[in-house]
Amino acid sequence: MTVLYLAHTECDNSLHKSALEALTAAKALADGLGTDLAVGLIGADVAEAAGTIGGCNAKFYAVSGPEFADGRYASDLAAAEAMAKACSPEVVVAPATSRFSRALPGLAIRLGGRVDTHLSGLAAEDGKPVAKRWFYRQRMEGTLTRDERPWVLTLDSGCAEPFAGAGAADVEALTVNVSSRTKVAGMECASEDQQTIRPDADLLFVAGAGWTKKQADGATHVPEAESTIRAFLDATKSSLGSSKSLVDISGEGGAVISFLTHMHQVGQTGATPRHPKGLSTCCHGEEPHVVGWRFIKERRAINLDAGCGWAQGKCDVLYVGDAFAIMAKVNELLG
Amino acid sequence: MGSEFHIVVCGSIVPDPLQTLAPQDGPAGPSLKNEMMLPAVLDPWAGHALFEAANLAAKNPGSQVWLVSLGPKAKLQQVMMSVSQKAPFQLVVADGSASGFTDAYETARVLAETIEGIGGLDKSKMLLFGGWQSASRGSGAVIQMVGELLGVTEQFQGVDRLTVGGDGSLEVLERVEGGAYQKSVVDGAPAAFGWATGELPEPPNNPQVGMQNMQKNMPALMQAKPADLSGTSLKFSSVELPKQRRETRIVKDVPVDEMAKEIVEWIKG
C-alpha cells in the first residue's frame, strides 16, 4: 500500500509552493495510514526539485526531459501513468495546478480508479483517507470518502503548510514514450505593469459595477474610474478582481472599464482567489459575491449603502461613502 | 478555408447563482433543500462552450453542434426554452440528476455512453467541448474523463480562445497560473476543450432559432433515457454551510480624508 505524491517542476526546475503544500498533505496521509510514501516528479530536469524535498523519506521516481518541460495533457498523463504503474498506489496526491488539473482526471480513467479534485483538506481517519472539498462554487463544504482505488486527489493551494526538508534523494528515472499531436508554442504572460490577477499579491482589489454607473451629477465617469483604479494598482501592485456584472456590461453595450475582462471575474462564476487582504469597491449583491470573498482573510469594502446585505456580516469594515472620492484620497496618500 | 467539425458540447443545468442554497441529507446522500423548486440556468461555463461551438460551426460550413446534457428532463425542458433561442444545436438528453454531489466519474461515464449513441457523429471530426468548471460540483474533471473514455487524448483546459488555421490546425489559449496563457497548437480534430469564459458575449435571443431548435429538441427530451448513476461508493459524512459571520464595523459620516487614511494604514500594516 502506497501513497504516491506527484509534482511537476516550474520553468526554473524548482517546485511551486502549492506543490510543497501538497507534499505536506501527502506525507501526513501516508503517516496517518501507516503506509509508504512515493514521490513522482515530472519536468525538464528534476534533480534540483528532488533535492529540495529529499528529506521526506520516500521512494523517488522521475520522468524528465525536454518534452516534459511544458504542461501538455498527453505527456503529463503518460508520465504520471508510468510512475503510478511503477508503485501501484492506493492514493495519488498532487497539487491542483493548471497542469495537473488538466491531466490527472485522465489518470484515474487509465488506472481504473476515481478522482476528486480541488480538495480543501485531506486526512486519515480510522485507517481511511478522508477528503474535504467545496461544492456549488465554495458555497458549502463536504467531507467525503470512497472505496474505489486508486483514488486520485488534487489539493488546492493554501490548504497545508509547505513542506520543508531538503536532502539527498535516490531517484529512479523512468522512460516514457510520448505520442501527441499537440505542440506547446509558448506562454503569453501579463507584464508587470498590466492590471491582472496576481496570485502572490497581498491585496485583492475588487471593482464593482458602481464604478460605471451615473454619479451624483447624473453623468458617468468611466475615464476617471479607470485612472483611479489604475493609479491604485500601480501604487500597490494589488491583484485586480471584478464582479461579473461589471464584466458583462461590455456585452450589454454599456460603458466599460477597458482593462477588465472575464479573466478578472471573481465570485460564483469566476475565481475565488486567496489573498491576505481584500478591498471591495462599488460592489453590491449577495451569494455570488460572498463566494468571491470566501478565502480572503481581512475584508474591507467601500459602498454607499450602510445596510448592504453583501457587506453586513461578510466584511470586517464597511466604509459608507463615495468610492471615487475615497480612492482618490487613498491614491494621494499612497504617493 | 474552413474545416468541418462535429462539436459535442457537454453541459447541464445549475441553480440560478442568485439563489440561496442549503444542503440537506437524504437517503441517497446530500442534496439541495427544495432542489426541484429552485430556478435553474444553463451552467455558465457550459454556456460559454455552447456559444463558442455555435460560433465555430457558423464559421466552418458543414459543422454540427450537439448539446449533450445529463439532468432531470423536466428542468432541462424549462431551461432549454430560453437557451434554444441563443444558438442552433441538437439536444441529446440523459435523464438523471444534475446535482453537484453526483460523482464526477459516473457523470463522465453516462456522458461518454450517451455521446457514443449519437447517430451520425464522426469521432474523427469531433471537438469535445464543455465547461472548465461548473457552478455545481466544480470538479473540472468531467471533460477529461469523457475524452479519455472516448479515446480523445489531445486535451485542453481553461480555454479562452480557439483559432482554426488554414490547414485545419487548432491554436489554443489555455489559462494557467498568474494571469498567463499557454499557447498550444494541435493538428486538428479530435480534441477536447474545457472552456473558461471564451471571448464571446452571450448571443441575443433569436426566436426563429428557438423555434427550429425546439422542433428537434422536444422529441429528444421526450425520448430521454433514464441515466444510472448508482455505480459509486462515494459517501459524504457531512455537507455544511460555512458558519462564519463577521462583526462588520460600519464607518459612516466620517470625512473622506479619515477613511482614506485608515485604509492606507491597513494596506501598509
Automatic annotation (TrEMBL), chain A:
> What are the protein's UniProt keywords?
Electron transport, Transport
Domain called Electron transfer flavoprotein alpha/beta-subunit N-terminal: residue spans: 3-184
Q: A Pfam family in this protein? A: ETF
Matching entries from InterPro entries are given as: DHS-like_NAD/FAD-binding_dom, ETF_a/b_N, Rossmann-like_a/b/a_fold
Record's protein name: Electron transfer flavoprotein domain protein
- Which species is this UniProt entry from? Pseudodesulfovibrio hydrargyri
Traced from the root, the source organism's taxonomic lineage reads: Bacteria, Pseudomonadati, Thermodesulfobacteriota, Desulfovibrionia, Desulfovibrionales
From TrEMBL, chain B:
Question: Would the keyword Nucleotide-binding be found if you checked this record's keyword annotation?
Answer: no
List the keywords (alphabetical): Electron transport, Transport
What Gene3D superfamilies does its record include? Answer: HUPs (3.40.50.620)
Pfam families, per the entry: ETF
The residue ranges of the Electron transfer flavoprotein alpha/beta-subunit N-terminal domain are 39-193
Q: What is this protein called?
A: Electron transfer flavoprotein domain protein
